[in-house]
């Protein structure tokens, strides 16, 4: 896979990121010309309709470019800033994680619910760190605290996939620094509609643009926040 550099040697974009975005944006512009769009590889399109599509055409580009089959397409429709529909699609497994506000979350035809584990001891977690942030010490400190307390710690390389896995009960929790709205909008709805909890790393609401995120089954949220919170 050939790629170009964006902000540095870790931050790459492939022809497929752009191709995926082109297909998705073409369809949205065609069907919903009055809606706004925020998509990673294009300038934002503002609108006064209240509706905004938030898209990551490939989440997990590094995995994709290196042949690791863990990457997703993430799309959310937000109304007045909150996601009302969200999908995270894993094309390698043909797994469609989908949710709609008030209607729950599904993986293909199966209704999803978060895990019931109530302590970190029984929890498998995942963590994300971006290419464009200068808080590595903070992140390593959090890993050091969580690792021995949990059953296992992963770094899957796709924030959207991790959030989908929290909603599906495959992970008990996930946290990430320096995430953008397109990484998390669909995943936030998936987790909430599957009965889980979302906050930022100071326990407040995840911000609109660049933010931190903590997602969990709800039961381990405070225990995890105590260790990774900033
Ligand atoms: C990245 C992935 C990664 C996360 C980064 C994101 P990209 O998205 O979600 O897991 O740690 O913060 O930027 O660049 O592959 O779309
Ligand atoms: Ca992303
Ligand atoms: Ca991306």
Explain this structure.
- The chain is α+β, with helices and mostly antiparallel strands.
- Helix content is 29%, strand content 33%.
- The protein contains six helices and 14 strands.
- The chain has a seven-stranded mixed β-sheet. It has a five-stranded mixed β-sheet with strand order 11-10-12-14-13, sandwiched between helices.
- Strand 5 and strand 6 form a beta hairpin.
- The N and C termini lie far apart (37 Å).
- Bound molecules: D-MYO-inositol-1-phosphate and calcium ion (CA) (2 copies).
Break the fold down into its secondary structure elements and pairings.
Blueprint: E1 3-8, E2 11-14, H1 15-31, E3 36-39, E4 51-59, H2 61-65, E5 72-79, E6 82-90, E7 95-100, E8 104-107, E9 110-111, E10 124-128, H3 136-149, E11 152-154, H4 159-167, E12 173-179, H5 181-193, E13 197-199, E14 211-216, H6 221-228
Parallel strand pairs: 3-4, 10-11, 10-12
Antiparallel strand pairs: 1-2, 4-5, 5-6, 6-7, 7-8, 8-9, 12-14, 13-14
Helix pairs in contact: 4-5
This protein binds D-MYO-inositol-1-phosphate (IPD) and calcium ion (2 copies).
Helix content: 25-40%
Portion of residues in beta strands equals: 25-35%
Instruction: Name the bound molecules.
Output: D-MYO-inositol-1-phosphate, calcium ion
Strand order of the largest sheet: 3-4-5-6-7-8-9
Query: Structural class, judged by helices and strands?
Result: alpha+beta
Low-confidence runs: none
Largest sheet properties:
7 strands, mixed
Shape: globular
Amino-to-carboxy terminus distance: 37 Å
Number of strands: 14
The average pLDDT score comes to 96
How many helices? The count is 6
Q: N-to-C SSE series?
A: EEHEEHEEEEEEHEHEHEEH
Gyration radius from CA atoms, angstroms? 17 Å
């Amino acid at each position: 896979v050939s790629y170009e550099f964006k902000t540095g040697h870790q931050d790459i974009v492939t022809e497929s990121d752009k191709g995926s975005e082109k297909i998705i944006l073409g369809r949205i512009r065609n069907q919903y010309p009055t809606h706004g769009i925020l998509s990673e590889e294009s300038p934002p399109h503002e609108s006064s309709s209240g509706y905004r599509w938030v898209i990551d055409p490939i989440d997990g580009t590094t995995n994709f470019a290196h042949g690791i089959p863990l990457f997703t397409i993430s799309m959310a429709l937000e109304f007045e800033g909150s996601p009302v529909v969200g999908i995270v699609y894993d094309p390698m497994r043909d797994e469609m994680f989908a949710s709609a506000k008030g209607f729950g979350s599904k993986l293909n035809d199966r209704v999803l619910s978060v895990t019931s584990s109530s302590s970190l001891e029984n929890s498998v977690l995942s963590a994300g760190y971006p290419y464009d942030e200068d808080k590595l010490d903070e992140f390593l400190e959090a890993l050091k605290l969580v690792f021995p307390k949990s059953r296992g710690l992963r770094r899957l390389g796709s924030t959207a996939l991790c959030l989908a896995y929290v909603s599906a009960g495959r992970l008990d929790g996930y946290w990430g620094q320096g995430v953008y709205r397109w990484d998390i909008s669909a995943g936030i709805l998936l987790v909430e509609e599957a009965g889980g909890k979302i906050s930022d790393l100071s326990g407040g609401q995840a911000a609109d643009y660049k933010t931190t995120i903590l997602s969990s089954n709800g039961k381990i949220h405070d225990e995890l926040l105590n260790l990774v919170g900033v």
